[in-house]
Request: fold
Amino acid sequence: MNLTKRFIETAPVGYHRDDQCSGLYLKVRPTTKSFVFRRMVSGKQKEISLGSVKKITLPVARSKADSLRALDGESFLAEVEKKKKPSEETKIEVVLFKDAARGFEKWSIESGKWQELNKSHKLYLGRLKNHIFPILGERDIETITPNDIAEVLSRKWKSPQLVKKLRGLLKQIFDWSSAKGFFHHDNPASITGPLKYLLPSEKAITKNRGALSVEDLPSFMKALHEHLNGASFCCGFFAILTATRSGTARRARWEQINFEKKEWTIPPDQLKVSENGYLIVPLAPEVIDFLKSLEPQEEGLIFTNSKGRILSDTIFSRVPLEVPGNWQDKEQSLIHNKNVRATMHGIARATFRTWAQDDRLGNDNKYDPRVAELCLHHKVDDGYGGAYERNKSFLRRREMMNDWAKYCFSEIEGRSS
Reply:
């Protein structure tokens, strides 16, 4: 590309060649931008700094590059040596970890990996601020070792899911930094390297979110149905019937519902695993009737708080506590030897998944486990992928979601499963 003033102002991290002037590059680091000249001599590439973009203009940089290109090989090498002052021969440009992390953040947005301030971006910022920057933020990225990564992860060892997320995030930052020339060692966050020998030997106990047993679900749904006196309860009822996550259900919009086709089309940014693409949820007749009872609008959020805004996750998560009855996860309570209350996520997701393979109901012979995973918008690695795979099983998913709704309603209004 031909370097321009406008491009120089917004150029991403990396090297950018000027096609108008052979050998001239714009070198962009997380905190600096400069012009450099590169030339091969005796099979080796040499680089000379021409100056910061704050000190010289593009025409001046091109003029300097032209002069260097006109030199013979021996004279050019002499110029390279002349540029090396004794105090600078061992001087290494320091890139702080926090600057590399911000560079990766900027690249992720520009490349389309994230949308600015979407859920993935906010989680990234929160994890850096709360768990990583306090330890690594001000460190020269070149000095960070597996021991430092182990320190970050060990502090959160009792939260295995968070540990997994933090390690994956760190690995991506170091991979990106290596690609951009800021880090020149093996990835310290790789679990196949020294890191695996530095983490705590005791295995953290994974605590699943409390769910209900399959046999308790109809009673809970009956109690919840009799308690639909607020948006959070209605949203919880909808989330269970559709087996969706809290954030997905809370952000459901009327324009996403097709009453004629009995479908709910959820865009990727409303899903936890956005890279799996959009999801079409088949809506059972019971769900359609429930939504119609809420006086549908042309557009806007289906479930809102008193100010017309999205429900908070805190209010939504309190639903099982406020529905009359003692709703406990019996299995988890036995494992941990204490009462583990059922959660909205556990009921809508784990109870559904258990029901889908319950042999007492004969579901283990009736439903394909793969279809249940697709209903939950989990990635299924079986030779298919993306929207094609989800649409391929749409009829089977509709059958499953219809039967799930019937089971949820089996104690409501005298219905039987």
